[in-house]
Design goal:
Number of domains: 1
Radius of gyration: 18 Å
CATH superfamily: Histone deacetylase domain
Shape: globular
Largest sheet: 8 strands, parallel
Bound molecules: zinc ion
Strand order of the largest sheet: 2-1-5-10-9-6-7-8
CATH architecture: 3-Layer(aba) Sandwich
Helix content: 25-40%
Number of helices: 11
Structural class: alpha/beta
CATH topology: Arginase, Chain A
Order of helices and strands: EHHEHHEHEHEHEHEEHEHEH
Distance between the termini: 6 Å
């Protein structure tokens, strides 16, 4: 397996701009732990390249990308003080105009306080997207399995909205790259414990990307406002979106069974390649979630993925118990036969 890595450490809200009274769980040590694991296992490791902004602009809104790139500097020029631009107000129902100031745009383009804009955020998000693009290109060149070790994660990022800990939707950008490279239909399996509302939004009206998500019930878990079973796509995309929410406390048996159900649905639509939004935050005790899977569950999921016989691009999403990440990744890859 080839692993593509990225430089992410400068984007560190926990060290540079913590929210008062709250830990910021999406820390650089996460990606470091995952990288050490694949390095120790002897996988080939390559740094990401730079394919420019065009493949990112295929999915993300131009004004949104401008804000992510320049918003922090503009905010400072406007008199903003401190290490992080966070919204003071949100563009929500009944309030949806887009003003020019960075302070105001923060509440338009950032859906949560957990996605602040730091001086280093754009570079890290851009490089993570490049990491995913390189992973897609490896698959296009004939690799059967590649791992884009992205940080920050991406699946909560919509066309023009950051959220969770996500800014650019790495998995979606990779899926589009695969399509543009001529693969034919792509499937995305997302078993990060949180519903990938960004990925769903990006492809909701399309039938060339089949999105399947297994996650904790959004009735009690972020992203709360999407991820329900009756969201199945619209227009041409009707039937190409499958949500499999699980009750709090679900253990390996229920979690793995739902992933198998999702894989059956994926196989029935005959995709040519599979992108996996790889999250380990369904693990019991994850500080951001409420399921109770174990490393053995991830091993079983890896084995189920190996059986479908498609080229697979792994794109890293969540997983916030840093000390459990090596065991979870090791078990998953062992199941996969990597
Ligand atoms: Zn997650």
């Amino acid at each position: 397996m080839i692993v593509v890595t990225t430089d992410h450490a400068a984007h560190d809200p926990d060290a540079g701009a913590p929210l008062e009274g709250r830990r910021y769980w999406e820390v650089p040590a996460r990606a470091d732990a995952l990288l050490q694991t694949v390095r120790a296992a002897g996988h080939q490791i390559v740094p990401h390249g730079d394919r420019g902004l065009d493949p990112i602009s295929r999915l993300h809104d131009a004004g949104y990308l401008r804000f992510l790139k320049d918003g922090f500097a503009t905010w400072r020029q406007e008199g903003g003080v401190g290490p992080a631009l966070r919204p003071g107000a949100f563009a929500v129902r009944h309030l949806d105009r887009l003003p020019r100031s960075a302070t105001a745009q923060a509440g338009y383009y950032l859906a949560t306080l957990s996605a602040p804009l730091l001086a280093a955020t754009w570079r890290a998000a851009y490089d993570a997207a490049q990491t995913a693009l390189d992973g897609a290109d490896l698959i296009l060149q004939g690799e059967r399995l590649a791992y884009a070790l992205c940080r920050p994660p991406g699946h909560h990022a919509c066309t023009d909205l950051a959220g969770g800990f996500c800014y650019l939707n790495n998995a979606a950008i990779a899926a589009q790259r695969l399509l543009d490279g001529g693969t034919g239909p792509v499937a995305i399996l997302d078993f990060d414990v949180h519903h990938g509302n960004g990925t769903q939004q990006i492809f909701y009206e399309r039938d060339d990307v089949h999105y399947v998500s297994v996650h904790g019930d959004p009735a009690t878990l972020y992203p709360f406002y999407a991820g329900y079973a009756d969201e199945t796509g619209t227009g041409r995309g009707l039937g190409a979106n499958l949500n499999l929410p699980l009750p709090p406390g679900t253990r390996d048996d229920g979690f793995v069974a739902a992933v198998r159900t999702g894989l059956d649905a994926i196989v029935s639509r005959r995709p040519t390649v599979l992108v996996v939004s790889l999250g380990f935050d369904a693990h019991e005790g994850d500080p951001t979630a409420n399921l109770a899977a174990s490393s053995e569950g991830f091993r079983a999921i890896g084995a189920a993925l190996a059986q479908i016989g498609l080229p697979i691009l792994l794109v890293q999403e969540g997983g916030y118990i840093v000390e459990k990440l090596p065991a979870n990744l090791t078990a998953f890859l062992a199941g996969l036969g990597a």
